[in-house]
Specification:
Layout (H helix, E strand, L loop, with lengths): L2 H4 L2 H17 L3 E5 L5 H11 L2 E3 L7 H7 L2 E5 L5 H17 L3 E4 L7 H11 L5 E5 H7 L19 H11 L2 E5 L3 E4 L3 E5 L12 H19 L3 H21 L4 H14 L2 H7 L2 E5 H6 L2
Helix pairs in contact: 2-9, 2-10, 2-12, 3-9, 3-11, 4-5, 7-8, 9-10, 10-11
């Protein structure tokens, strides 16, 4: 049957609930090559969710570990020489073993070292790319990026670039924003859940990349596509953010409450509260 016809808003949410159940039943081992600012928070987010984090980011080990991991995150936030080498080694190991991997091109565009590395990694066809609108536009060669990690472009402005990247890699692209946009070669999904406090906590976006790697690992067991896995990760994470914000006084208490909310979230919460729209790309482009 044609997967394009099967994907709907309802099936996306149902698959997300099933993937959360799968993740909790068989916790994925997630290798994170990520930036030094967010390492601890990212590990705690994965642990709270029910996954197992492993911050294996040195050459000589990174490729070997990627081969036994359920999913790999490569985040370019602080790309030291060691991490740059480890990233390429890990992706090589992941590709050989069939391990799905996420590229998070943090602050690419005007900064030359990370931008060159991002292009090298892009040529290796990531399973999933996650970034804000300015990062996605820069990765596609359509802009010079944002202001550091802050986006200067709206999510919808990156739609064309996201579709272009999805087609060239054969994977999926997730553009984070007030309404998250997720695409592959055939579909678009928009998720309107979340809370602005995610932008006030260091690692709020970077940790989502690790959550996506965890859901990609779960999707290896269920046969779901990278787009469905990325949508499940986004939905779980943004709904947990709503729960955390409802009992927080500000960014400090929110960061702690987010961990509690990720641990507490259940599949039935997704089906009850999701704000998801899924369409075929041809339909989206015809009505744009």
């Amino acid at each position: 049957m044609n997967a394009r016809l099967e994907l709907s808003s309802e099936s996306t949410v149902e698959s997300a609930a099933d993937l959360l159940t799968q993740l909790r039943a068989e916790p994925p081992l997630v290798q994170c090559i990520t930036n030094s600012v967010v390492t601890g928070f990212t590990a705690n987010v994965l642990l709270a969710l029910g996954a197992a984090p492993a911050m294996v980011d040195i050459t000589g080990e990174a490729g070997m570990f990627a081969a036994i991991s359920s999913g790999l995150l490569v985040n370019l936030g602080t790309p030291t020489p060691e991490q740059r080498s480890a990233s390429l080694e890990a992706v090589g190991g992941a590709r050989t073993a069939g391990t799905p991997w996420v590229l998070d091109p943090v602050a690419v565009g005007v900064l030359p070292v990370r931008t060159a590395l991002a292009q090298d990694l892009l040529a290796l066809r990531p399973t999933l790319i996650r970034g804000n609108a300015s990062e996605i536009l820069a990765l596609a060669g359509r802009s010079l990026g944002g202001r550091g990690v802050d986006a200067l472009d709206g999510t919808e402005a990156a739609g064309g670039a996201a579709r272009e990247l999805a087609r060239s890699t054969g994977g999926a692209v997730a553009v984070s924003g007030p309404v998250d946009l997720l695409v592959d070669a055939e579909h678009e999904i928009r998720i309107a859940n979340g809370d602005a406090l995610l932008t006030r906590v260091t690692g709020g976006g970077c940790a989502l990349g690790a959550v996506m790697a965890a859901f990609l690992g779960a999707a290896r067991q269920t046969g779901d596509s990278p787009l469905v896995a990325a949508s499940a990760a986004t939905l779980v994470y943004t709904l947990a953010a709503e729960d955390a914000a409802s009992r927080s006084d500000g960014p400090g208490s929110f960061a702690v409450a987010l961990l509690d909310a990720l641990a507490a979230i259940r599949p039935e919460s997704l089906t009850a509260r999701a704000r998801v729209e899924a369409v075929a790309i041809e339909t989206a482009e015809a009505t744009a």
